[in-house]
Specification:
8-stranded antiparallel beta sheet; single chain; 34% strand; 232 residues; 10% helix; 1 helix
């Protein structure tokens, strides 16, 4: 009887560990490296025809609390230019003094609310120590009060340069029942912070549903939230 009790306890302990590990696991997916691995057709530019040099052709209004602007430098809006590469194809590298308490954030504002179904964030071309290690994706409907949709605090997700990583509702963050007009990416820390050039991001793509209905991101569709560039 004792042996059976011990065995039952051992089985329960293993089951608990498996369930706990499963609960903690992330299912984020590496799509590849370089511009060709971006999904394309995201909410900020469904037609993939944005012109970053002229700041035209985008379906969103962009703002940032540091280095706002496209092209002409490694400015924050370059994370929405549909390109991965060095120099003006990324946001880099912080103005000095370390990341502020409110983080370094860049925001896309849309003309209607969307429930976030999935998003990608890409590493830049060099210096892995500049990759965000503590960061969030947040949503808002007034541009003032933001709600955390996804949060990460730990090692960098990226193990290659110009690497595109996909995060999906229902796997990496809760399925959204509320739509937001504003989506904001905030970086709170990197391995380099606060020394020197301490921060960089290659690209961000947001996908969402205006009808608050989850959409399979692998479906090769054209919808209110854009189109998949590459079938996987």
């Amino acid at each position: 009887m004792k042996i059976m009790t011990v065995l039952a306890g051992f089985v329960l302990m293993i089951a608990y560990c498996v369930i706990s590990t499963s609960d903690l696991a992330h299912a984020e997916e590496v799509l590849g490296t370089g511009t060709g691995s971006l999904l394309g057709g995201d909410l900020t530019d469904p037609e993939d025809d944005g012109n970053p040099e002229a700041d035209e052709g985008y379906n969103a209004i962009f703002t940032a609390n540091e280095e706002p602007g496209f092209a002409g430098g490694e400015f924050s809006f370059n994370v929405f230019d549909n390109r991965l590469g060095p120099s003006n194809d990324k946001w880099c590298c912080g103005k000095g003094g370390g990341i502020p308490e409110e983080g370094l954030h860049v925001t896309a504002e849309f003309d209607q609310p969307y429930a976030l179904t999935h998003f990608t964030v890409s590493s830049a071309n060099d210096v892995p120590a500049r990759d965000p290690t503590v960061w969030e994706v947040q949503g808002s409907n007034d541009g003032e009060k933001f709600t955390t949709i996804f949060a990460h605090d730990g090692d960098s997700f990226w193990n290659q340069r110009l690497q595109v990583v996909l995060f999906e509702a229902g796997e990496d963050f809760d399925v959204q029942e509320v739509g937001y007009k504003f989506f904001r990416h905030v970086t709170f820390d990197t391995a380099s912070n606060p020394a020197g050039a301490y921060f960089q991001i290659g690209e961000i793509e947001y996908f969402g549903d205006a009808n608050l209905t989850a959409v399979d991101p692998r479906a090769k569709l054209t919808t209110t939230w854009g189109s998949i560039k590459n079938a996987r």
